[in-house]
Amino acid sequence: MAIIEVNHLTKEYQLGHLTSAKETALNALRRLTFQPTLERERFKALDDVSFQIEEGEVVGIIGHNGAGKSTLLKHLANISKPTKGEVIVRGSVAPLIEVGAGVNPELTGRENIFLNGAILGIPKRVIQQKLDEIIDFSELEQFIDTPVKRYSSGMTVKLGFSIATSMEADILIVDEVLAVGDLSFQRKCFDRMEDLIKRQGRTVLLVSHNIRQIQRLCNRVILLDHGVIHMEGDPQKVCDRFYEQSDKKIKDTMELSSSKSIGSGEIDLMELYFCNEFGKRTEDLTYKKDCSIHFKINVIHEIEDLTFGFGFHTTDFLYLTTHNSEEQINIERIPRGITEITCNIKQLPLLPGIYSIRFGITSGKSARTIFYGENMKHFQVIGKIPITIRDGFFALDAKWEQTDANTAAI
Amino acid sequence: MLRIAYNLYLYRELIAALTYKNIVIRYKQAYLGILWAVLKPVMLMLVFTLMKGFIGIETGSIPYPLITFAALIPWVFFQESVSEGVNSVTSNAALIKKIYFPREIFPLTAMVTKLVELAISFGILAGMMVYYRIIPSAYIWWVPAFILYTMVVALTISFFGAAMNVYYRDVAQAIPIALSLLMYGSPVIYPLSLVQKKLLIEQAAGEWSDRLYMLYTLNPLVGIIDGFQRVLIKATEPDFGALYPGLILTLAFLPISYWFFKRAESWFADVI
């Protein structure tokens, strides 16, 4: 039996503010006399959402702002009630929705541990047992008897996270909490979450804008869009779809704003296109096949000593590669007019997915930037990959073999 | 009623933790600390005693400060419980939006917090009784029952008021006014015997007197305050004639108020 069952969940909110006493009285009068009442405009935050989650599953929920993610979690945590439909949760729920909601600034760290424990429903006995562990994890030994109002904001969230994750429940609901504290603490939080998820086998619902985290932790992802389940299933596929959606949104807004690149005005990028291994123009590149990238530029002022460079990056701006033209071609001067430069790539190593390209031109020994732009073109890498390569961005040319321990030692 | 008691038991640790929080944050940076809580009835008692010097209120052989303080103990407890209780849901908006537990915990906690302050007031009363050499009688065992009754009255108003306050903040504005009016409708400054003398013996309002007295005793505080004075100081048994109209009214309204609160509860997070 599914541990969480959501059937045709619909949540409507009324738009606008509370009506005046006069309106309310008039509406009541109309209702009594069976006349139509004045209804405020309604907004569907969730529209007929249905899904099931089995025990031990780790499910990510992604979507744009206002897609209904938090509303959905609120229903699972029993904070809001559905307008229509039903939510069945079989087990205890630990809501880590914005940790530190119950942290009171006047109380000391230690007092807050007990207070928040009580709010989350952890018995005092359990907290007492775990007190040292919680304090230890929060890295706040020195400040634990200081009022929280004297804490830095990072210290407060550390405390909140430490308390919340010490809770033992069947279902963990996590909303944007992994990005807590400094880098080393974030690492610790992430490890703690992974421990909860992978080793303790809890059922976890994760909402985050950090798609990489979702992809890494979840075994199923639900993509919400305007209150409707847009796609559901394999993390890789759903996340790629989400990137695609985001890209479209980014592109749309970019086309509205006049330029997406910076330049000195000496050079203009006219066109950027790909060719496949047969030299034919293409929109998609194929994994492990040769291809070429063509930059058509318009030189407005004559320039000297040029270096070109391009790189691939993911749609969330993780730089994957760069490749500069230094030592490959030496262009001392370029006359005015339209020129095309090409970069040939052998056996494209990028794994299937969605990527983007950045491009720059510098001039002179001091590498003065003449042109630079990111997200210049989005493209998809297609193709089949062997089962040995699953996640990541690149294929590694590697091979497994079994070595006899005795010979290996020599 | 049973549901409330059960929840009270089930969430006792949460209520204890929230009560502790309420008390700590209220008095932490105050030098006098929790003494502020009892300053209110003590000051009122002093003012009333001073007033009595001008007006002249008949209290028999019992010292007026003592009788007033015995009246102020349940009154202040009731008044503070209600005004805290009505605001308890809206002032915890952050928690309501994040975590679920039965929302009646908030009015309950507000009341339990005041219970702590009530205990201190009793300490002062004990001191006064020693000073005036008044020995408590066996009737003192009625006191817990009266406290429980006061709690039930306060909860009845808190549940309804707190739920309404989420939708209409007017309630929080109206409650202090209503409470200060109610104080004059309760035998805090004057003893109940004075009202009884006017209405029941002298029949001051003519043929309406008995009905008027019934209306007056519909206020549960009348029975409670008079009861406190009787069992603590006068060493007599409670006046059941003054108690029952208010008690019936309260017991009739408690389920309705609780039902209303539970019904409204589902939308707290959306509306608050």
Automatic annotation (TrEMBL), chain A:
Keywords: ATP-binding, Nucleotide-binding, Transport
SUPFAM superfamilies tied to this protein: P-loop containing nucleoside triphosphate hydrolases
Keyword Glycosyltransferase: no
Signal peptide location: none
Domain ABC transporter: start-end pairs: 29-251
One Gene Ontology molecular-function label: ATP binding
Nucleotide-binding found in the keyword field: yes
Database matches in PANTHER family: TEICHOIC ACIDS EXPORT ATP-BINDING PROTEIN TAGH
Family: Belongs to the ABC transporter superfamily.
Protein name: ABC transporter ATP-binding protein
TrEMBL record, chain B:
Membrane topology reported for the UniProt record: Multi-pass membrane protein
UniProt superkingdom: Bacteria
Location(s) in or outside the cell: Cell inner membrane
Keyword Transmembrane appears in the UniProt entry: yes
Keyword Endoplasmic reticulum appears in the UniProt entry: no
Organismal lineage: Bacteria, Pseudomonadati, Pseudomonadota, Gammaproteobacteria, Methylococcales
Keywords linked to the UniProt accession: Cell inner membrane, Cell membrane, Membrane, Transmembrane, Transmembrane helix, Transport
Protein name: Transport permease protein
Organism encoding this protein: Methylomonas aurea
Primary residence: membrane
Classification via PROSITE patterns: ABC_TM2
TM region positions: 30-50, 62-78, 115-134, 140-162, 174-193, 213-233, 240-261
Residues of the ABC transmembrane type-2 domain: 32-264
Pfam families: ABC2_membrane (PF01061)
Similarity remark: Belongs to the ABC-2 integral membrane protein family.
